[in-house]
C-alpha cells in the first residue's frame, strides 16, 4: 500500500521530506521531484505539486500512473469561507467543488462537463482518519509546536476541526466582495483554496481513494494577504507535519 502526499507549497511538506530523506530516492518527472521512501512504516511518495488546479491535476496523474499510489492525501492552507471559522482551524473535506467552473448554459454552473456532477466526495475512511489525527494533534501537541505568543498574535484561541465542503479555483480569494459572492453561490462551503477539487476529480476518474486537509490561515477577505508567508512558515508547516505524522502512526497502530 503506497500513499501519495501532496502539497502546493514547500513549507507544507518540508519537515516530512526531512524525515524521509535518509532512505528516500528522488525521481524527476514534469519539472517535479517525487520523493519515494518510507514514513513511519508506510511506503510514501511525497511531492510538491505547486499552485493551481492544473499543477495539482498533473501531479496527481503522475502519482497514479508512474508510482501506482493506492491512496492520496493533499495538505495545505486555505481561506475560511463560512461564518464562525477561525485562523488555526482545520477543515477536512467531505466534498470538493470547483468554484470557477461555469460551462453554462450548456451545463449547470459548477457541474463538470460530461461527468454529470458538481462535487466529488472524499473517501470516508481516509477523511475520518485524517480528522481524528487532526483533533488528536490539536489536543495533544499543537500548544508545544505553536508558541503561545504566536497563538495570541493570530488569535488562535481554541482551534477546531471541521468536516465539510471545500471549494477550489485558480484564484487567490482576497476580497470581502468575492467572499460574499462565493458564500451566496456555495452556501455550504467551509473553505476556499486552489488545488483540492482538481485532485478530487482526477482521483474520482481513476478510482483512487483520497482526502484533503486544510489549515485556515485567514478569512479569505481583505486581510487574506497579511503575513501569509509568515503564517505558512511559523504555523501551517507545523500543522501539516504534525497531523500527517499522527495520521501515519495511528494507521500503523
From TrEMBL:
One MF term in the entry's GO annotations: adenosylhomocysteine nucleosidase activity
Domain of life: Bacteria
Enzyme kind, highest EC tier: hydrolase
Residue span, Nucleoside phosphorylase domain: 2-248
Keyword Amino-acid biosynthesis appears in the UniProt entry: yes
UniProt-listed GO biological process terms: L-methionine salvage from methylthioadenosine; L-methionine salvage from S-adenosylmethionine; nucleoside catabolic process
InterPro entries in UniProt: MTA_SAH_Nsdase (IPR010049), Nucleoside_phosphorylase_d (IPR000845), Nucleoside_phosphorylase_sf (IPR035994)
Pathway annotation from the record: Amino-acid biosynthesis; L-methionine biosynthesis via salvage pathway; S-methyl-5-thio-alpha-D-ribose 1-phosphate from S-methyl-5'-thioadenosine (hydrolase route): step 1/2
Keywords associated with the record: Amino-acid biosynthesis, Glycosidase, Hydrolase, Methionine biosynthesis
Pfam families cross-referenced by the UniProt entry: PNP_UDP_1
Record-listed E.C. numbers: 3.2.2.9
GO cellular component: cytosol
CDD domains (alphabetical): MTAN
Protein name: adenosylhomocysteine nucleosidase
Taxonomic source organism: Pandoraea terrigena
Amino acid at each position: 500500500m503506497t500513499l501519495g502526499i501532496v502539497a502546493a507549497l514547500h513549507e507544507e511538506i518540508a519537515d516530512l521530506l526531512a524525515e524521509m530523506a535518509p532512505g528516500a530516492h528522488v525521481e524527476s518527472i514534469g519539472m517535479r521531484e517525487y520523493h519515494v521512501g518510507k514514513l513511519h512504516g508506510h511506503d510514501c511518495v511525497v511531492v510538491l505539486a505547486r499552485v493551481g488546479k492544473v499543477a495539482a491535476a498533473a501531479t496527481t496523474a503522475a502519482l497514479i500512473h508512474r508510482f501506482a499510489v493506492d491512496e492520496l492525501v493533499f495538505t495545505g492552507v486555505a481561506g475560511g469561507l463560512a461564518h464562525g471559522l477561525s485562523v488555526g482551524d482545520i477543515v477536512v473535506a467531505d466534498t470538493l467543488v470547483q468554484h470557477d467552473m461555469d460551462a453554462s448554459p450548456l451545463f449547470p454552473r459548477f457541474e463538470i462537463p460530461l461527468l454529470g456532477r458538481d462535487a466529488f466526495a472524499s473517501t470516508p475512511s481516509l477523511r475520518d482518519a485524517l480528522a481524528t489525527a487532526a483533533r488528536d494533534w490539536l489536543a495533544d501537541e499543537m500548544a508545544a509546536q505553536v508558541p503561545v505568543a504566536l497563538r495570541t498574535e493570530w488569535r488562535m484561541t481554541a482551534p477546531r476541526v471541521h468536516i465539510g465542503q471545500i471549494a477550489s479555483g485558480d484564484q487567490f480569494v482576497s476580497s470581502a466582495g468575492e467572499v460574499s459572492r462565493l458564500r451566496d453561490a456555495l452556501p455550504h462551503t467551509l473553505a476556499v483554496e486552489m488545488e483540492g477539487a482538481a485532485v478530487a476529480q482526477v482521483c474520482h476518474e481513476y478510482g483512487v481513494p483520497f482526502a484533503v486537509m486544510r489549515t485556515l490561515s485567514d478569512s479569505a477577505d481583505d486581510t487574506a494577504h497579511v503575513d501569509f508567508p509568515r503564517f505558512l512558515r511559523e504555523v501551517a508547516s507545523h500543522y501539516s507535519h504534525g497531523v500527517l505524522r499522527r495520521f501515519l502512526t495511528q494507521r500503523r497502530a
